[in-house]
Amino acid sequence: MEITQIWLTLVSGGLVGIILGLVGGGGSILAVPLLIFLVGVSSTHVAIGTGAVAVAVNAFAGLWGQARAGMIKWPCALVFSAAGAVGAAIGAYGGKSVDGDQLLILFGLLMIVVAIATYLRRNKIADLDVRLSRGSAPKLLPPIVGGGLLVGLAAGFFGIGGGFLIVPALMAATGMSMRQAVGTSLVVVTVLGATTALSYAMSGLVDWKLSLLLITGGVAGAWLGLFLGKRLANRKGRMEMIFAMLVLATGIYIVLRSTGLIFSL
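Request: output the structure for the sequence above.
Response:
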């Protein structure tokens, strides 16, 4: 492995970690294009598997800071994670059977859809006291379980932690604030990323050296992202706008690049 590739992987991991710590999502969805277009990984499936390992570990590292800040709704996180893990296992099995180039195009299209959905929801009023209890279970359990299964299927199929899907899904299912959804999503990202990574590792689709470098850069990035998240806590609309625009721009680039409409940079 060349020195240049090592540094590019560390930088990529740092960017993934910052996004995970800041908005609770987008880490893995950025890891895949970074590994392919910046680091130079030739196989889409290997990039997906490698990124999933790093994202799971980095999300685990970042969630403790969110827990100390009281931003994790644990009952919601555990139920969503359990349902998501089932969906991720099924989705990963299907994703590995799809051609890598076609998978990358679908990946980009999904990013565009999620970016638009996030933008449209950016001003929704949040329920800061949401909690999953015996009284609220009949109302909250169906959307949480259903959302977990759907997000898990997408996360497994595309080989991602799914944070960029989990945040809006948690907000839609429970009404929690974006900051609470960000914290809660890191628990789910850890579970779904680990489930997806295990599936890809069993098929020999993980580059462990690159994963270690991504993790090294990502741990530092996650703590920086957490710090920035606290500083921007009162700028909810701006955080969501930045998140939506970042996902949209990356999705458009992936689609155009994968279909040959633009050349690599």
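The chain has a mean pLDDT of 81.
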